[in-house]
Amino acid sequence: MSTPTDTAPFTLLPNALADPTARWRPEQDAILSDAGLAAARAAISSWPGYAPTPLVPLPGLARALGVAAIHYKDESPRFGLGSFKALGGAYAVARVILRRAAEAGRRAAMEDLLEGRLKDIAAALTVCCATDGNHGRSVAWGAQRFGCRCVIFIHATVSEGRKTAIEAFGAEVRRTAGNYDDSVREAEATAAREGWVVVSDTSWPGYTEIPRDVMQGYELMAAEAFDALPSPPTHIFLQTGVGGMAAAVAAQAVRRWGAARPRIVLADPDRSACWLDSLAVGRPVAVEGDLDTLMAGLACGEVSLLAWEVLKDHCDAVMAIPDAAAVEMMRRLARPEGDPPLVAGESAVAGLAALALAMEDGQARAALGLDRAARVLVFGTEGDTDPGLYRDLVGADAETVRRGAA
């Protein structure tokens, strides 16, 4: 099934490759594992300012949509960066420095890095990446905190607000022509020429170690959410860019619950639906063009190969949704009926917007097993990371929304 009805404003595709009873394979454990999660948790929880982000029940929205429960993992307070990305990019930067220390014959731990005993190792490094905004901010923050030089590549449509936010952490920001995938290639080529280290949240053949660290950091967010839930969810809706976050959540779900795991539904922007297109043909394929979606953090035309190894087996369906659905959900969360107001950026709400669209369509509800007993978990992956754009879309700034005065 592609479109559930002739008038549906979205596309729904069940994943023909998925097996809900599939075990977590050794090849997948080499990507994301309990040991890797324990190491990431120990490291990140030692950073000043660490605290689990809130898991917010939304009973009013659940009643309105016709499900039993919705829980929203609010990543907007994460380390003051406004996004879950702080868990990935900065952790990967730290791991790069620790590996360099080991290569130099120095035994070092995260404590040594935090207390400045690896300043000489860090100062000799330049890290770089391509970004739609949030990942670059995390890498820049990590580089500033640990003492590296940092260069961030942004593509043509990344807002000036997001560029300025990255520069605030001391990074040099270079704007490139083309789309996100073009900026990834530019970052890789420049790093190879200059001897820099690419700290990317996507992976490609021959480049997997650092993206694995990024994803392992993301898995801490899933573990926090699952630990805080009153009962396991029946469904998890996850927005997808390259897929690293979705794969990290799926990995934690499969390892924790096995064959009893929730149904996992991906949500692509319909203007950069790389997961929809890839799952439709059973292999990674690239989406061409400018990928001009308002959901800027999800404007990716190529899936991460590491994420593909996880999600091809362990996601049950993918939806492609329009920008308008994301904007409507941002406004709905800002002015809720019976729930606390939430500040959610345009890339934070794709999963929740996909749930709302599916609940309006009988064929989609049936295909996804959604009914009044469904308990749904979503991840609000960013707050107002572009405050000006947020204000324009919602009609109020974040502080006004938080006060309940929007």
Short characterization:
The protein has 406 residues and is an alpha/beta fold. Helices cover 44% and strands 13% of the residues. The chain has two domains: 11-84 and 211-402, 3-Layer(aba) Sandwich (Rossmann fold), CATH 3.40.50.1100; 89-200, Rossmann fold (3-Layer(aba) Sandwich), CATH 3.40.50.
Can you offer a commentary on this structure?
This protein is α/β, with parallel strands linked by helices and 406 residues long. It has two domains: 11-84 and 211-402, Rossmann fold, CATH 3.40.50; 89-200, Rossmann fold (3-Layer(aba) Sandwich). It is 44% helix and 13% strand. It has helices at 26-29, 34-44, 59-65, 89-103, 110-114, 119-123, 134-146, 160-167, 180-194, 209-228, 244-257, 274-281, 305-314, 323-334, 350-359, 362-368, 387-394, 398-402; strands spanning 11-14, 55-57, 69-74, 126-131, 149-154, 172-175, 197-198, 235-239, 263-269, 317-321, 375-380. Helix 8 links the parallel strand 5 and strand 6 (172-175). Helix 2 (34-44) crosses helix 10 (209-228) and helix 7 runs parallel beside helix 8. The two termini are 40 Å apart. Mean pLDDT is 95; it is low at 1-6.
The largest sheet has its strands arranged as: 1-10-9-8-11-3-2
DSSP helix fraction: 40-55%
Number of domains: 2
CATH class of the largest domain: Alpha Beta
**Average residue-wise pLDDT:** 95
Element-level helix/strand string: EHHEHEHHHEHEHEHEHEHEHHEHHHEHH
Overall CATH architecture of the largest domain: 3-Layer(aba) Sandwich
* Helix and strand composition category: alpha/beta
CATH topology descriptor of the largest domain: Rossmann fold
